[in-house]
Amino acid sequence: MAMEITQFLLAAQSADARVRTEAEASLRQFQEQNLPLFLLSLSFELENNDKPAESRRLAGILLKNSLDAKDSARKDHLVKQWFAIDVALKSQIKELLLRTLGSSALEARHTSAQVIAKVASIEIPQKQWPELVGSLLNNMTQQGSPAHLKQSTLETLGYVCEEISHHDLVQNEVNSVLTAVVQGMNQSENTAEVRLAATKALLNALDFSQTNFENEMERNYIMKMVCETACSKEAEIRQAAFECLVSIASTYYEVLEQYMPTLFELTSNAVKGDEESVALQAIEFWSSICDEEIDRQEYDSPDSGDSSPSHSCFIEKALPHLVQMLLETLLKQEEDQDHDDDVWNISMAGGTCLGLVARTVGDSIVPLVMPFVEKNISSPDWRSREAATYAFGSILEGPTIDKLAPMVAAGLEFLLNATKDGNNHVRDTTAWTLSRIFEFLHSPDSGFSVISPENLPRIVSVLLESIKDVPNVAEKVCGAIYNLAQGYEDSGANSSLLSPYLTEIITHLLAAAERTDGAESKLRGAAYETLNEVVRCSNLSEASSIIAHLLPAIMKKLAETMDLPIISTDDREKQAELQASLCGVLQVIIQKLSGREDTKPIIMQNADDIMRLFLRVFGCHSSSVHEEAMLAIGALAYATGAEFVKYMPELFKYLQMGLQNFEEYQVCSITVGVIGDICRALDEKILPFCDQIMGLLIQNLQSGALHRSVKPPMFSCFGDIALAIGAHFERYVAPAVQIMQGAAQVCAQMDTLDEELMDYANQLRRSIFEAYSGILQGFKDTKAELMMPYAQHLLQFVELVSKDPLRDESVTKAAVAAMGDLADVVGENTKQLFNNFTFFGEFLNECLESEDEDLKVTARWTQGMIARLMHSS
Amino acid sequence: MAPHEIRRPFKRRPISDQQKRRELSLLRQTQHRSDAQQRARNLASSVISLQSSSPDVDPEILSEAVPELDEGTESESSNFDVRQASRLRGPEARKWFARQLMLPEWMIDVPDNLSQDWYVLARPAGKRCFVVSSDGTTVSRVRNGSILHHFPSALPGGARKKGASGPANSYSILDCIFHESDQTYYVIDMVCWRGYSLYECTAEFRFFWMQSKLAETGACDPPSFYHKFRFSAVPFYNCDQSGLHSAYTGSLPYVKDGLLFYNKHAHYHTGNTPLVLIWKDESCSQYVIDTDNNGEVPNQQHIVLELQEEGKLVTSDDPPVPFSCLNADFVKQSGLSSGSLIRFAIGDGGLKCVDGRFEKADLQYTGVSNRARAFADSYSKIMFQYMARHSPLKVEDLASTISHENQQDKPPEVEMSD
Predict the structure, then answer these.
(1) Contact with chain B for residue A770, Cβ under 8 A
(2) CB neighbours (10 Å) of residue A516?
(3) Could you give the ipTM of this predicted complex?
(4) What is the pTM of this model?
(5) Cα–Cα distances in Å, from B199 out to A315, A864, B42, B128, B173?
(6) Between A and B, how many CB-CB pairs are < 8 A?
(7) Backbone angles phi, psi at A670, to 5 degrees
(8) At A562, is the pLDDT very low, low, confident or very high (cuts 50, 70, 90)?
(9) How far apart are alpha carbons A821 and A829 in whole angstroms?
């Protein structure tokens, strides 16, 4: 029997901390001691219309949190708990939840709809709540069902559709759900609240409706209802209908042809005259069509033949009208849209869509846009000038260089002058357009650039003048410099045209980063990122002394961050952010200078001081390891080599912290990579730290809480450690290989239809082979026999992988290498095994015929190792 | 249940620099991991076998120069790598290195499937040599094993630069021709690269590797303080009509000395091999017919043969082709001994062949060969020289062989039945 818990629920929201804590503790105790009863009591609370809104609200939240969690390990735990509850009691809870859908309190209905969807997500795939769909549909069809019950029922149906896969229902149920939802949209029969709920439910049910969309009659009916709804009186319902159209544009692109005339009319009316929230969705419809067509163009490889998805050229067919419509939106700018990152308005959406249209159709957009540009670019009205500049900038990606080059060459000087325009927006968009020009029309390496030795001095001087402009403009100028530098990245070994300006550019970027008026914009970050690119792309033989001077300047700045006054958490975050930028610059400098033997000593001479700074950065943040500092340390380890060992005593605790940081899995992943760098730098000298590192790695790999993306780097790291410490890996080999075998097993059972999962499977398999290779080569000549017990399993794994058509080249390479390592290292003892595994001959032949030269080399080597084995007596 | 987000990036770069740094770091780590594993693998496969029992090498000098070698195993073949070999001094070093080059036979008839299975390249005029970069220095040795240059280079491990810390075992061996006038080493083959042995790789692969790896190091850059000579990979072509034409007539930065033909499937085979061929005529070489010490073409063809036991005179081929015999008294009188290299002129009787094989020669003794020579002439060289003087193999013969092959390659017409 349910308990009366209203008082606790109210007290848990009390302003008095003592009362609150006590009530929370009581609730937690109840939950731990008797979860079924706790959930039942919460359901009663939620259902009871006599209870205060506040206690019902908390009851709903607690119910949801007992069924779902973001963390996947926690979620698994909750699901297990739910399954363990007595069936009769669960029926009672579900009954209460369904009854709440008819409550007069909107909030309780809404919460109940969400909780029902959570229960459904657990039970429906297990066929444990077969009557749910029936009882919801009953709410819709029963004579005299009140509107508010229909509204919450539709909401529930939408959420349920979102939570489960349509494979969990039989087609009949899908049909009934869809019928109920679409009927709910019917204007003549339903109130506005029901129609809104139905339209939103349809949005969630669209993925469900594949079979129905394949049937022309059903499809026509659904499309008719959506289009009618898009003309509803209520703006909110129109918006929901357009959201459905956006989703249909990408999900059912193939079948849209017959509806396009109607859809074009609907969307252009909305863009021209409807409220902004609706107009934004209408533009998004066209952006989604562009996304689809660009995708189809990119994946349309000629050899894939018939299987390539259809391309209906909707954008091309609508082009003149579409472009006209989008150009008009450009003139509807808001006064200060460039200052506020949260703004999203019709001119921004229209401009973005115009850029996508250019990428979709290429050259044919140019003659449609250029008259608009020419007409407006010199207008006295800033809106016209800005719109013209934006239009010009947005068509720079897509059309061919041949088409764009003459226009851009002719317009470049105008744009350079426009950096002095009286209007902030115009200058912002001008700087952005310049950065697009340098991005798409400046690649001297591939043979074309609008920049020549003649106009480069002028361009640099304009950029360095403009970087002093207001922060939002300066940020765009940073982008322009970024792209300018990038173009010169591969400009030949001898000389870079940018070298003479390097000192000046760096000085201005540092000044921009120092500015205090840029606090709200992203100027500082942009300035440092640009500095990184300038360093990365510089010609080292010409720039080495400049970069050598930059190094102490950045070190000094990083040292200064330690003295920033820290009062609030906000201060702490700002400090961490600045340190991230500066560690990033240091990382780039370290990598650049250590890339060549004659500049490497500069890093060696400063290594102690740099390392001391990184350790201080770690010291500033007790709760987590600073990601960027860790990344930079990897570069430093590579540069210093074996000498890095002197930093290990102090660094080690941060490496351990990084490895244990499950929540920020990126940090964990980077730390694992850095340990690999350190292994290669230290070789055997890493040994004293290996017990702890291996302990943590093994523990992590066994934990369900670790983000899966970190697992492959961890296996690779096994290999790095083994290669570094050689025979000493003996004591880890049993537990390590056991986990590797377990993971290999998991790979074999993965769902091959899930593309993302296959990507992961490939990474995982590659890393397991890398681990085998490292261990085998590490044991060579000393402990080779230790791997004999695992040889059979390794070959089985290689065989399994060799038979998988979905493996990628890097997996193949790693598999072939590991097989060769086995033959090379363990030698004669594996001869019999290789005789039993006949697959390898065919597998090697396949690799030898590959286009990938690296793979060929590896396969050839492996072939040699196995041949040597076979010919031995 | 979240509202559908339709905001798109506006006036922004789609990727953050931090993400780029992360990806670059990952890329670097992956590269270094694969390098490290590759190095571990190569320690085994790159050693070059040397018969330590070979009578040419004095075991005393060998054991002194290479303390790691166990003197007790002299009857066994032991592994011996180029870094150890580089410590050899004097004649042993010369002999050792002299045996490491792959030597082309001279083309005395046209091989089958030229257009399918062979590459052609224009041989630069100059000294054929073996370039080894290792332990911070680079040494080039000409065919007889003696040192041509000892210099710093941008090859892997080829210069002792401050702070250099490459892997100690990283060495590279290139097969080159040193071209005097532009002081350039033209690379015609690659034998080892960064410790990775290419001996067991096909020419097809070695050539690919050579073209792609050489440029990476900066070895093709102009000379500088740490890079005394420029290296350059010789362009090669499939030996079809156009390839042959390009190699034969194409303009190149170097003076040509004949054409080299490489069988694509052949491994790097030290010593003479019929899978690499040299061919010359007057228009692609200044040195078709051998000259004497004064650079003039002598009236008679001169050849060098090796004296064996019982006075047998043989070529440098393996197995040696016997050419003639010296009588024992003459040998004794002239102070010759087994192994001596002896120079002869071919008299008016010429070379007599039966069914394309040599049968008998009219040889006139001229004396002991120049000390700088390490080898006798090969059979194919003697024959080519002889043909060059009498009935040369012409470029037209090569071209017509290729066009004949192509006609044969055309698929037979097949009648389709319904």
Answers:
(1) yes
(2) 7
(3) 0.72
(4) 0.69
(5) 58, 11, 12, 18, 10
(6) 122
(7) -65, -40
(8) very high
(9) 13
